[in-house]
Predict the structure of GNAT family N-acetyltransferase.
Amino acid sequence: MDIIIADKTHHIYADIICKTIEESANVRGTGIARRTPEYIIQRMNNGNAVIALEGNDFVGFCYIEKWDHGKFVANSGLIVHPNYRGKGVAKMIKKKIFEHSRSKFPNAKVFSITTGLPVMKMNSDLGYKPVTFSELTKDQSFWKGCQTCKNYDVLQRTSQTMCLCTGMLYDPKTKNNQDKKKIKVKVFQRLKRIKQSIFLKKTQK
C-alpha cells in the first residue's frame, strides 16, 4: 500500500472519496461534514491532500485546509474504505497528513474537531491537546463547513462555543508536542458522554 501526496492524477477517486465519507457519516450517526467531488479535487490540485492506494484501489484519504491566512491548518476528511478498516490504515494516513502539514505550513497551528474517539487518540499521540473552541480559528468559512453536519444546531445553540465535537490543537510555538503524557481514551469517552447527555437531551425536548 502507498500513501502519497495527491495530485491531478487522482481526480478519478473524488467520487468514491465523497461516497465513502457520506456512508461513514450515516453509519456512525455522528457529525461528518459532507464534501463534493469538486471540493476534493481542489485540495488535490493544491497539493493539500494525501491518498492511500492499494494498486489502483482506493484505500483512504485526508486533506489540509488553511484558515486565518495560514495561521491555522486543519487535517480534515480522514476516511478509510470499509474494505481496509481495522488494519491501522487511518493512523498511517493521519501521521502522513500531519507531517505534510508541518512541512508545508511549519508555523501554523494544526487543529481538529471530531467526535471520533479513534481520531482523538491519534491526535493525542501526535501531540495535540484538547482545547476550547475559542482557541481555534475564528474564520467563519471553517465553521460554515459544519452546516452539513447533523449536529449543527448544537453549534448554533451554543453560539459556536462548543458542540459534540472535541477541539484539539497542536501549537508548534509552545512545543506542546514535547509533553509525552498521552490522554487516556477513557477521558475522551467520558467527555463525549457528558456532551451527549447535555446537548442531545435538549434536542429531543
Q: What stands out?
A: The chain has one domain: 2-204. The first strand starts at residue 2 and ends at 5. The chain has a mean pLDDT of 85. Residues 47 and 60 are 16 Å apart (CA to CA).
